[in-house]
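sorry for the late reply, my laptop died twice this morning and i had to redo everyting from scratch. anyway the thing you sent over, i finally got around to it. pasting the sequence first so we're on the same page, its 450 residues, then the predicted structure underneath. double check i copied it right bc i was rushing
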Amino acid sequence: MRHDIFGQDTTLASEAALSAWNATMRAFLAHGAATPTHLAATLQADPDFALGHAAKGLFFLLLGRRELIATAREALSAAGAAALKTQPTPREMAYVEALSAYLDGALSRAVAHLETVLATCPRDALAAKLSHAIRFVLGDSQGMRRSLERILPACGPDHAAHGYLLGCHAFALEETGDYAAAEAAGRAGLDTCPDDAWGLHAVAHVYDMTGNARAGLGWLEGREAAWAHCNNFRFHVWWHKALMHLDCGDTGAALALYDHEIRAEKTDDYRDISNGTSLLMRLELDGVDVGDRWEELAEVSMNRTEDGCLIFADLHYLLALVGGDRDDAVTRLTSRLYRDARASRTEIEQRMARPGLATAAGLTAFGEGDYATAFRHLLIGRKDLQSAGGSHAQRDVFDRLCIDAGLRAGFLDAAETVLDERRMKRGGYEDGYAMARRSIIARGRRIPAE
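ok and here's the structure:
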């Protein structure tokens, strides 16, 4: 029996396969672009490695693309066939069961299988990172934190993934409002693993949530090597830098990053679309003319209206379609949301219903200039928006749209209430956006009613 880089028993057939598998796990933890290359080498060296096939399926499902579901099912079938030949360990089979649950639309059950692994093998960093990633999709920040705090005592400085796990903990701490601890954990993780882009970005989140954009720019400056090796996650880190420039009032720098980094590659990955749409919308809410940039995002998003893999993705496709005035595609996407919401067979479809339908209606109304209707729907949607997944920083575009819709509709008191709730969620901190809106409210109250 061989042992992987984290000390876990593995049924890999050769040292070559083990070396490729260790490289796969390290690359995945680092959001490395080389992850699929290493995994392919693993399965080429050992085609009967059930865990490798299960990981492949889970990696594909996390991409949130309907056309990849069939590939994930093929991976599950390959894992099952391999298991009949090689007698995987219970730990390895738990990954196969997690993949099966995810394919059934039971993401929480998939997490439960991974947590079963961690209960007996707390040093299994791959299970920890996959649990973290799926909880991120579910918006389960408290679960992220609990999971990591259960295993970290067993994953000290001697553990090969110690820095990456600190980065995950940093993100969970930030998402649960413990900003000082999050910053400390993220910095410590990066000291241990200099390519830990997730931990670096967790510290960027801290600066976003505490309204300290200039310090955030200072944090990212000179650390580009920490995310240069990444898959498309590198675009997301550039997105954070653009948000910081926007908060400092440097819209030119934000647009330059949009053109030369964030949308330098015109992909249709939902994470890249979410970066682009949310930045353009923030810019427009601040009165910036973004030119024809919506056109490219809308054109790409027109082909994703039937995905239905994640409500987070669908809402950003909808933002692109509203921004690009693609009315027919807006109708197609919202009609599909209603169909999925009526079915509500899976956790994903349940999220199409709540917060999906209300938020989608709010976005559509905002695009039509019906700000009173937009405000009412976005107000309803934001009550459950955490379950759409993503981070506070990513979901904040919907809060901003809700607040701005309220202001444009003349609902100053109600918009101020949302601003107050937003401030509480951020530990009492406010950013440039919030201060500008409070000034608008103050001016509005000084204008006598006609």
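The domain at 1-155 is CATH 1.25.40 (Serine Threonine Protein Phosphatase 5, Tetratricopeptide repeat).
thats about all i looked at so far, will dig more tmrw
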